[in-house]
Amino acid sequence: MGIGRRLVYGLYLLSGLSVVVGIHVEFQQPEYEVARGDQVSLTCIFRPEAPSPKVAVITWTADADDPAEPQIAIGTYFYSSGPTGTQLDINADYEGKATMTNDVPAGVSTLTFPKVTMQENRVFQCAVQIPGDNDGQQADTTRLVVLVAPSVPVCNIQGAAEYGNNINLTCKSEEGSPAPTYKWERFDPSNRPLNFPPRTTENNGVLSLFNVSRETSGYYICTSTNKIRSASYNMTLSVMPPSMKIGSTAGIIGGCVAGLVVLIIVVYCCCRRKKKKEAAEHGTREYGMEEHAAYHDKPPSEMGKERDGNTVDRYEDTREVSLIPRTGFQDDRSEQYDNHSRQDDNREDRRGSSDRLDRYEDSRRGSSDRLDRYEDSRRGSSDRLDRYEDSRRGSFDRLDRHDDDSRYRSADRSADRSDRYGNGRSGSSDRLDRYIDKRGRSKERLDRYDDSRGRSRERLDRYEDGRGRSNDRLDRYDDTRSRSSDRLDRYDDNRSRSSDRLDRYEGDRDRYDDRRDDYSVGV
């Protein structure tokens, strides 16, 4: 009996201590799990210090998405056993989404969500306030986990799937609560599992493949899993040889086409020049053959001395033979006249080239004149800078002499004033200080001018460099013009020789016509 009495007495003391501690608030479960769209009720139980309180305030809140933001108010219940009764206030954002039921004498408060969404996936708090009952645990929290099955993951390839490259296969589900976990698998075309290539890593849905090759190709499956269920996505990886970029390919094709066009133009010009040369040589050979035939024909004057019929018949035959090459002679002469016309056209072209060269020479003289004028202005600027430098040196000399003289005279006058007045030396020292400050400012202005003069000299040096480059270009043009003049002179010589040959041909033709006329008269 003694032991039983002591046990009852200890339980009585513990109940008394619990009463002394104060109010105690707690949830039935520290965490609630519910699928999205289902109903859930969060039950808060509280035990006040004194049973059946006359006044109580019950408040429900939730944590915000950002911890730095204040809590979200859901609803507040005011209880009074007096004539004021009870009052329930629900936040406008939760009207129609949540309901509160409260039983203060029983110490129970319930928050119900008829249809849970992802907005309720957060921590909720229940707080109970009773006047005069401030000790103990006045609030408690619970977590509501909204379960959402993972959506079909979205898979992508980061990097170019070409031989020797490093690529990443990414896998991500847009939805899923709790956050899903990801797993990659590899299969061959026969749906047999394969091991990943060496050095492959997998981290939070990212599969990293290094130094990929043809053997890396295959079927890859990513599976997203959480408490509800799992979802998979199947992708095909095809590793190809390196391909040329479109820009590089277009550049190479364009370069080849341009080179082919230039080659065609060069071949065409060479063929035209070769044909012209062969035509000129062919005309010269035919001219020599006709001249040889004209000098070796039988003179018609000798044949005219015989008067018999046989002689006349022989002359007629000879006359027919001699008239045959005349037609060729007329054709050759027409060709020579055509060549002469082409030479005249070339001469006109040469005159146009000479005019262009003269105009360029005039513009070059104008450029040389402008350069000379600039050189004169530069010499004038250099002279002005030198004169300023001389004046600056004179100013420094005058300042130094004046400083020395002033210092000595001021020192003498200060000594005299010190002897006579005692305090006069301090005034002279102030004037000397002001003068020294003024002299320092003058030197600063001279230094700034020296800086600007240095920048002017740098600009002049840069101009000299540009003028030297211009002279180089002019010299190169003079060389080109000299070569063009030499080619024109050679062309004139060739044309003169062609004219001489034409003149000789005309003389031979006139002599042949004279012989033919004499023969006709004799007959």
> Sheet with the most strands?
6 strands, mixed
Order of helices and strands: HEEEEEEEEEEEEEEEEEEEHHHH
Helix content: 40-55%
Low-confidence stretches: 1-5, 11-20, 287-334
Write the layout of secondary structure elements.
Layout: H1 2-21, E1 23-27, E2 31-35, E3 40-47, E4 55-62, E5 72-80, E6 87-90, E7 99-103, E8 108-113, E9 123-129, E10 136-137, E11 139-147, E12 154-158, E13 167-172, E14 181-187, E15 193-194, E16 201-203, E17 206-209, E18 218-225, E19 230-237, H2 246-296, H3 300-303, H4 309-420, H5 424-522
Helix pairs in contact: 2-4, 4-5
What can you tell me about this protein's structure?
- Helices cover 55% and strands 21% of the residues.
- It has 5 helices and 19 strands.
- The strands form 4 sheets. The protein has a 6-stranded mixed sheet with strand order 2-11-9-4-5-6, with no helix packed on it.
- The radius of gyration is 59 Å and the shape is elongated.
- The termini are far apart.
- The N terminus is likely disordered.
List the keywords:
523 residues; alpha+beta; six-stranded mixed beta sheet; five-stranded mixed beta sheet; 5 helices; 19 strands; 55% helix; elongated; disordered N terminus
Q: What's a quick, concise take on this entry?
A:
The chain has helices at 2-21, 246-296, 300-303, 309-420, 424-522, and strands at residues 23-27, 31-35, 40-47, 55-62, 72-80, 87-90, 99-103, 108-113, 123-129, 136-137, 139-147, 154-158, 167-172, 181-187, 193-194, 201-203, 206-209, 218-225, 230-237.
